[in-house]
Amino acid sequence: MTEPQIQLRALRKIYPAKGADVVALDGIDLDVPRGAIHGIVGRSGAGKSTLIRCLTLLERPTSGTVTIDGQELSGLPEAKLRSARRRIGMVFQHVNLLDSRTIAGNVAYPLEIAGVPRAQRASRVAELLELVGLADRADAYPAELSGGQMQRVGIARALATEPAVLLCDEPTSALDSATTRQILGLIRDLRDRLGITVLIITHEMAVVREICDSVTLLGHGKVVEHGALGDVVGKYGSHLARELIPVPDLPLGVERSLVEVAYSTDDVATHVVLAAVAALGTDAEIAAGTIETLAGRRVGRLQIDLPDDRVEEALSRLHSAGVHAEVTR
């Protein structure tokens, strides 16, 4: 089996505090295959930011190991760690470009630090700006760019030293929806063209739906759920499945019982689900629902509004038809 590009084992990070220590990461195990785009999600305080700092060893883990591209980082001395970090590109929510430098100068900065000769730097910068669609803005300054263009510069800068892994920390949360899709499309295209492995820290499930091959949900510093996107959405009652396939808000005035139907066309065809719902009769109605294609499969969730005394019968009929159903109210 191919060795994962990113591998975490029993990763713990504890911050000493008066009264009781704060456990930010509590035994994280994670494998991300080469060339995958993996999402890390979770509420504020779940440990996402601590995880990305430990991945780059900006924070030394309390215990456990971090292995990137076959090299175990957590035991390296500082000098070797600086060299190893060049194999990790970082893209941030706030791009933090140097205002006094041109776009080309910003992209060249990590190459200067690495001691790359001037002519080689110029060639690499031109190649990167072409790659991210900004070849005509090399001489512009950050103040002249849009938010999306600045993020493209940030991506080009992150790729300057030809990293094996690209870590993206909330890369689109400051962008509008149209620009977000463009940036995510660029990241996917770069993965396909360069073969890099991408880890995205995000609180936006739309980002996971749009670009990720797999996802991990963190909660209180632990892995709550993990898996390939197609497998995760097939776990109908799980938190991630509900977040990835959200049901629209229910209309006002719905006061009867609600039965949730969730399905994937890998398990049951859409027409079978709709026929099973229709067979419940005219006093059962679809109050809200969504059907979309995710990870190559069509998945859906429906909320069925029906009288309280019909709930058990409805569940029995739906289950008999091979449809997942559960009471939500």
TrEMBL record:
Gene3D superfamilies: 3.30.70.260, P-loop containing nucleotide triphosphate hydrolases (3.40.50.300)
Pfam families given in the database record: ABC_tran (PF00005), NIL (PF09383)
SUPFAM superfamilies: ACT-like (SSF55021), P-loop containing nucleoside triphosphate hydrolases (SSF52540)
GO terms for cellular component: plasma membrane
Molecular-function GO term, any one: ATP binding
Entry keyword Translocase: yes
The keyword Transport is assigned to this record: yes
Ranges that cross the membrane: none
Superkingdom assignment: Bacteria
Record-annotated ABC transporter domain positions: 6-245
Keyword annotations of the record: Amino-acid transport, ATP-binding, Cell membrane, Membrane, Nucleotide-binding, Translocase, Transport
GO biological process: amino acid transport
Quaternary structure, from the entry: Homodimer. Forms a membrane-associated complex with FtsX.
Function field: Part of the ABC transporter FtsEX involved in cellular division. Has ATPase activity.
Family: Belongs to the ABC transporter superfamily.
Protein name, entry field: ATP-binding cassette domain-containing protein
